[in-house]
Amino acid sequence: MGYLDSFLGILGFGIGIQIGILLGFVFFFRFRLRDVDKESNKKALEKLGLRRIVDIIDELPPWVMSPDYERVDWFNKYVEDMWPFFDKAASKIIRESLEPTFAEYVGKYKIRSIRMNRVTLGSFPPKVHGVKAQESKENELVIDLAFRWAGNSDIIVAINILCLKLEVQIVDIQMSASMRLVLKPFVPTFPCFSCIAASLLEKPEIDFGLKILGADLMSIPGLYHLAREIVQRQVIKLYHWPQSFDVNILDDTIEAMKKPVGILHVKIVRARNLLNMDFLSTSDPYVQLSLTGDRLLAKKSTVKMNNLNPEWNEDFKMIVKEPDSQVLQLQLFDWEQVGAHDYLGMQVVPLSSLTPYVTKELTLDLVHSFDPNDRHNKKQRGQIMFVLTFVPFMEDSKKFSSKSLNLTENNDDLSPERNEPSSFSGSGLLQVTVIAAENVEGKWNHTNPYAVILFRGDRKKTKTTKKCRNPYWNEEFQFLQDEPPVKYQIHIQVMSKKRRLGFMTKESLGYVDINLGDVVYNGHINEKFHLIDSSNGIIHLDLKWKVT
Length: 548
Known about the structure:
Layout: H1 2-48, H2 50-59, H3 62-65, H4 73-105, E1 111-120, E2 127-134, E3 141-150, E4 154-161, E5 164-186, E6 193-200, E7 205-212, E8 215-216, H5 223-239, E9 245-248, H6 251-257, E10 262-272, E11 285-291, E12 299-300, E13 311-320, E14 327-334, E15 342-350, E16 360-365, E17 383-392, H7 401-410, H8 416-419, E18 428-438, E19 449-455, E20 458-461, E21 472-481, E22 489-500, E23 503-515, H9 516-522, E24 524-530, E25 538-547
Antiparallel strand pairs: 1-4, 2-3, 3-5, 4-5, 5-6, 5-7, 6-9, 7-8, 10-13, 10-17, 11-12, 11-14, 14-15, 16-17, 18-21, 18-25, 19-20, 19-22, 22-23, 24-25
């Protein structure tokens, strides 16, 4: 047994040494190679340099850099599949949004007409690289998202100047931006919100191609960077948070929920110490007023030539639909005869800070934007003085009784009725809703009807319904009046149009003139009227007169 134990011990010792040496080599090479990999990665990063590393980090998606952003690969798949349909819907919104802007320039600078020949966003959808939901106490959902879009878009705008026809083509739009989407207000109808408000959180990166008569203007030295900078500056000025571009989702629900509840009276008094944007003279300032969530064109004051301390003393009236969420925006510009108007500054006032019937005088410092990181806010831009009064309509005054009661607790002599300015007693809002028409038929065997409303020099029209003799519009139009229009008529005419042999032909399908005295005295009329110059045509109208 002694020899056997010695033999087995020597055998185990020899095998153990071999196994130990083998394991030692394995561990040595494994950890040594890992250290070599770390060292090589470190040297590779050192060769890249600090600037290149920062550039690479900036290109990483937000869900990598910020843990509160989430990946949305499923959403990108949804956008990719729905993009052909979204392209058609977005193209329609672009056309409808730009038509009022184009109409402002027709007749100016020898421009005869401006129209969009082609609008398509292309076949490449944007990619969302991160999404974050924000907390909000309002009746809304706030979503921040970062996206990049390298599209093959094609937009052609035809401009007729004198006898020349110019085609301006914008192609291959590329964009990288951080956007905020606000879904509001919540409604009991699918998709459970009625509007999407889109805003930019920072200056976007925009690239595009620009052609005129087929010539590529972006190939001209110096013009490429200048055009990009101008477009980026204008986009951020129009849509930087809290300013937004609103897209209505549920038109009928919006009309039901966003009815006018009052009138905001704005008096622009004066401005002081404005910036001088002109080289050989002083600025020519004017004020542009608008309410968030309002699709109407912004109101403008007169231009004060060569004046850094202008006085306007001009009054404006604006229709208020959501006093708890709407914001009054005041923007000052330096008028230019040629080219874009220079931006002087802005201020905003939430309507929730106003008390009904109480006049509020404000003197505010102008700022470049409400971005706390905007370096342009360090520059002094002057001040603007203005006066605000929110006056609810009589039928809606009970909704604001709580604010008025707070006033009466502090001052027993103050009440909404006693504090209401006498100059507002005759003002009001005429609401005209063109609901539908029946049995409208043209002489030329084509019926693409639309309604035209003419009232005291204002002309408004509904959308066109193609190939239909019983069109349904349900569109509302509003007219602010300084006094009850008891002595006036409103003219509503149903028209039809069609392009024949390259020419646009129009035909009257009937009209009706309505005395507004009955509307003022009754407050509300909902009736069907027989169309004059029409055999069997009928139009269904709803008219309301709301007083403050």
